[in-house]
Amino acid sequence: MSAASAVKTLLFWVLSVMDKHFTLELADEAATLQAGREFSKQLNAGAVVYMHGDLGAGKTTFVRGVLQGLGHAGKVKSPTYTLVEPYVVSRFNLYHFDLYRFIDEDEWYAAGFNEYFNEDSVCLVEWPEKAERILPTPSFDVKLSLLNNSEQADGRTLTVLRY
Ligand SMILES: Nc1ncnc2c1ncn2[C@@H]1O[C@H](COP(=O)(O)OP(=O)(O)OP(=O)(O)O)[C@@H](O)[C@H]1O
Ligand SMILES: [Mg+2]
After folding, report:
1. Strands 121-126 and 93-98, bridge-based pairing
2. Enclosing domain of residue 70
3. Residue 12 CA to ligand 2 centre (angstroms)
4. Does any ligand 1 atom lie closer than 6 A to the CB of residue 34?
5. Axis-axis angle for helices 29-40, 3-19 (nearest 10)
6. What is the domain-level CATH number for residue 16?
7. How does pLDDT run across 92-148, given as a tens digit for each residue?
8. How large is the C-alpha radius of gyration of the chain?
9. Which atom of ligand 1 is nearest to the CA of 62?
10. Per the structure, how many domains does the chain have?
11. Whose C-alpha lies nearest to ligand 1, atom 7?
């Protein structure tokens, strides 16, 4: 990303703090990663981020950018089968959930997932719709939409809402 567009991205985030809401076009995967890195600066311990968007919209890619922004240098696996992947970053514990396959509310409590949402952690949750009744209210809603309904290319639209 060029210096000029990086400044532009930063400006969007400054505006977002004032507006509590903004939309940005992400031309490619690199732009989604960059947006995640910028967004990570908004995160403080205790934050809960709902990640909305269809299958393949770029939610995990965005979380990968967030983790990069927080200094995580390792891999970021999609928690599709494990439901959650934990990370320790400099400022807090970060839990990345993917609840697409989540069914059993009893399992949620038995696994201690509820305790992952606390004042020392940040939780980013893909498919929050699947556990609406038990999740805490979000600090941010992030939504990624496919342009032209194609997962292959053509970019994405990002919308961020801050509560
Ligand atoms: N802005 C973008 N433009 C085009 N492709 C993108 C963009 N951002 C991410 N992608 C690509 O979209 C694909 C799917 O991304 P990703 O796995 O992050 O989606 P997801 O929303 O997490 O899907 P799922 O709901 O299945 O977990 C990847 O191949 C990624 O490179
Ligand atoms: Mg994903």
Report:
1. parallel
2. 3-162
3. 24
4. no
5. 50
6. 3.40.50.300
7. 999 999 999 998 899 899 999 999 999 999 999 999 999 989 999 999 999 999 987
8. 15
9. 18
10. 1
11. 29
